[in-house]
Structures are given as C-alpha cells and as structure tokens.
TrEMBL record:
PANTHER family: CELL SURFACE PROTEIN (PTHR34512), OUTER MEMBRANE PROTEIN ASSEMBLY FACTOR BAMB (PTHR34512:SF30). Residues 64-117, 202-403 form the Pyrrolo-quinoline quinone repeat domain. Residues 1-24 form the signal peptide. The chain crosses the membrane at residues 432-453. The lineage of its organism: Bacteria, Bacillati, Bacillota, Bacilli, Bacillales. It comes from Lentibacillus kapialis. This is Pyrrolo-quinoline quinone repeat domain-containing protein. SMART domains: PQQ. Keywords: Membrane, Signal, Transmembrane, Transmembrane helix. It comes from the Bacteria. It holds the Pfam family PQQ_2.
Length: 458
C-alpha cells in the first residue's frame, strides 16, 4: 500500500499539469513553403491551440506582405526599408531584427530552421529589367536572424519565393526563374520565362510551378515542370495590359485561377480566368466589370475554398464568389477598393480593404455576418487564420492579431454566435473529462492518506 500512494500522487500531478503541457505546444505549422502556405491560397491552419489574445506587432515601416506564422514565431518584412522581424506570438516580444538591401514585398517562407525572403523594387532599368539597386534572395537563421547566404539577381524578387525538394525557386523582374540550393544559395538552374514577373508569387502544386508574367506583350501565364526543369505550357493573353503579372494564382482540383485587366488605363475591365492545370487551356473566363484604374496591385488575388472562388476587385470595388468548375457567379458584395486575397474557414469568408476594415461574409450567400475596424491600408497583405485568430499586416506598419470571436458573427436568426466549431467543442469536452478524472483521483488519494493515517494510529 505504501507504494500505491506515491504512484497515484505522480499520476495526479501529471494529469494536473497536462493542460499546461498542451498549451505549450507550437501554435503554427511546422513549415511555410510558399506564398500563403497552401496552393489554393486559403491560408488557414488549426492544431487545436487556443486563439491568441488581441495583439499588435509593431514594425518600422509599411507592411505589404503576408505575415508568416511557424511554430510560436511570426515573421514579417517591411516595404520601403527592407526591415525583417521575428516576434514571439504569445508575448509579442521582438525576437530579432535584420534588414534586406531593398524593398520587401515577399513573405518570409520557412523550411527547417531557415527563412527565405526576396527583395527588390518596382522601378525599371533602361534595359527593360524591373528592379534597380540590389535585388535577390536572402536566407536567414530563424532563431537568430543571422544572414546565412545572399544571392543577387539582375531583376527584383518582389514575388515570394517557393521551396521544393531542397531548392528555392524565385520568379524575377529579369524574366527568369532561378533555382537555388536552399543550404548554400548556389545557383542550380536559371530558366528564361521571356516576360517580367512583378508580384505574381509562384504557386507550387505537386510537381508544377505556376506563375503569371507581363512585359513584353503578350502577357503570358506559365506552368513549369519542377522534375525536369522545363516549361509544361505557356498560355498567352493578347488582350491583357495589366494585372496578370501581379496576381499569385490559386490552384485546386486541376484548375488554375488568376485575374487580369483588359482595355486600357482609361477604361479597364477586370477578368477572372480558369485554366486547365495540365494543359493551360482556358476553361472559362468571366468579366467582373469596369471601373476606375488603381495604382499598383491593379488586379485582385483569388483563393479557392469548398469548390468556390473568392476574389475582390479593386476596379469594381466589389467582392465576388464564383463556382470553380462552371464559372457561374454565385453572389457579389459591393464595398471599397480591395486588393488582397481573402481567407475562409467554417463557412465564413473574410476580406480586407484599403480603408482598414475586415468583413466576414457567409460563403454560400454573401450575407454580411460581421466586421472589424483595424487601421491603415490592409493591402496587398491579405488576412490569414491561425487557430481561430485572424492575422493581417497593414501599411500603418503593424501586424494585427484578432480572435475570430471579436467579429460577433450573426446566425440566421440575428443572434450573436461566438466562433466555435466541432474541434472547440471536442476540446472543451476533453478538458472537462480531464478535470473529472483529476478530481476522482484526488478524492481517492485523500481517502488513501486518511486510511493510512488511521491504520498507523491504531
């Protein structure tokens, strides 16, 4: 009986501490290998961790790239200054600060303890190469922020690079796709795409890289085979004059989705395109309408969620839902200028605009379910959702983390409905069961101690 007491005491202690151990688990994914994490560009991750509290991460300058969350760290870079930051997600503490040689519009993607980021600006050289001063890719130690290597390119690397099979792929303003060794930065291969890539961050789906490009006309969309380093197909868009080279494509279920502008800057028309991922054939195309031309990031970036395309148009100032396969328009929601990709979870799609607002819409009907005012221009950095926490960068230099519960989502009845899914309900049930077990064991332990005390007295 003497041996039972310490055993049960140890078990009681372990069960009591287990909630603390659970809370100490990593908040974000283990890796972030391309723009917006997933090929469908719906940057959502959930491992059962509790949402973050309201948090503001302060940087030095405008943020125009999507914040990257890996483990318990947040990585983000600045537009004009090239400042690079890592923050502790729980405390908001700045862990390290370094600087790239030029603008940073690229995300800081992550693989096995290293972050990779592109740098460069949008100004053209006399030769037609896009990007002046220094351009290239940096690799930094994710723990210390120390630069591990730097590779210089002739043109800008404003699009986010992508990781695949030990290599970093960068699409550039000098009309090439670079393949670099992820550990050394050594150039492995350099393929000419024949067109400038401005902000179309390459998307990797299985063994293929997809990217849009611009000058010289015709604007062209390309699929690049990563297994043999050659182009699978290139589809020309002779009517396009802007946007195709700005938009990171979304890929899902054999369909590639992108947007672009036709006409001219006096009367631009915004188009949504769906291409066959294997052949490049245009499956369908839909006009979103005409409107006023906007400076920079002229064409909205799409995501794919539950066989639907969601995209905002800075030209028509309207947010849209389309069926992925048929191209049928499902609904539209008029708003302000919006440029960033949205994000969707649990039947709700969230989008941000240039007025500092984030809106929550029913993904099926387009009905407004909630909204949240933040600050600054929320573009072109789009929101992401990590464990029921919406995270978005702003041109006011801050990254905002907001628990989804603050949107006070409305049910059909009009009653407030806190954000909660089956996973959350399951977690609550598991925690309740855990506390019940601890209570029972505590009672048993107390009973044993009383029994042993009385037996010793007798």
């Amino acid at each position: 009986m003497k041996n039972v007491i310490p055993w049960m005491a140890g078990l009681l202690l372990a069960l009591t501490l287990s909630p603390v151990i659970t809370m100490g688990a990593d908040f974000g994914p283990d890796e972030w290998l391309q723009y917006r994490l997933n090929s469908d560009k719906n940057a959502v991750f959930d491992n059962g961790s509790e949402p973050l509290d309201n948090q503001i991460f302060e940087t030095e300058d405008e943020i125009r790239s999507t914040p990257v969350v890996v483990g318990n760290k947040l990585f983000v870079g600045n537009h004009n200054t090239g400042d690079l930051f890592a923050f502790d997600l729980e405390t908001g503490e700045q862990l390290w600060h370094n600087q790239a040689p030029n603008w940073v519009h690229s995300e800081m993607i992550y693989h096995e303890g290293t972050v990779f980021v592109g740098f460069g600006n949008r100004y053209f050289q006399d030769s037609g190469v896009r990007g002046t001063e220094e351009s290239g890719v940096l690799a930094l130690d994710a723990e210390s922020g120390d630069i591990l290597w730097k590779y210089d390119t002739e043109g800008e690397v404003m699009p986010t690079p992508a990781y695949y099979n030990g290599h970093i792929y960068a699409a550039t303003g000098d009309k090439h796709i670079y393949q670099l060794d992820d550990e050394t930065g050594e150039l492995i291969n350099k393929s000419s795409i024949d067109h400038v890539v401005s902000m179309s961050s390459p998307t990797i789906k299985e063994d293929t890289l997809y990217v849009g490009s611009g000058r010289p006309s015709p604007y062209t969309f390309s699929a690049y085979d990563l297994t043999n380093d050659e182009f699978k197909w290139q589809t020309e868009f002779p009517d396009v004059f802007a946007g195709l080279d700005d938009v990171p494509p979304a890929v899902s279920d054999g369909v590639v989705v992108t947007t672009a502008l036709t006409g001219d800057s006096d009367n631009p028309e915004h188009w949504l395109y769906a291409l066959d991922a294997e052949t490049g054939e245009r499956l369908w195309e839909k006009s979103l309408g005409t409107g006023d031309f906007v400076k920079n990031n002229k064409s909205g970036a799409p995501i794919i969620y539950e066989d639907k395309i969601f995209v905002g148009s800075p030209i028509t100032k309207t947010f849209y839902a389309y069926d992925l396969k048929s191209g049928e328009k499902l609904w539209e929601f008029e708003n302000e200028v919006m440029k960033a990709p949205p994000v969707a979870q649990d039947g709700i799609v969230y989008f941000s605009n240039t007025k500092g607002m984030v809106y929550a819409l029913d993904a099926k009907s387009g009905e407004l379910k909630g909204e949240k005012e933040l600050n600054g221009t929320l573009a072109p950095s789009g929101p992401i959702i990590m464990n029921d926490t919406l995270i978005v960068g702003s041109q006011d230099s801050n990254v905002y983390a907001v628990p989804l519960s603050e949107f006070n989502l409305k049910e059909e009845s009009g009653q407030d409905s806190p954000v909660k899914n089956e996973k959350a309900n399951s977690d609550e049930s598991n925690n309740m069961m855990q506390y019940v077990i601890v209570a029972i064991l505590a009672i048993l332990l107390i009973g044993l101690l009383v029994y042993m005390y009385k037996r010793k007295r007798s």
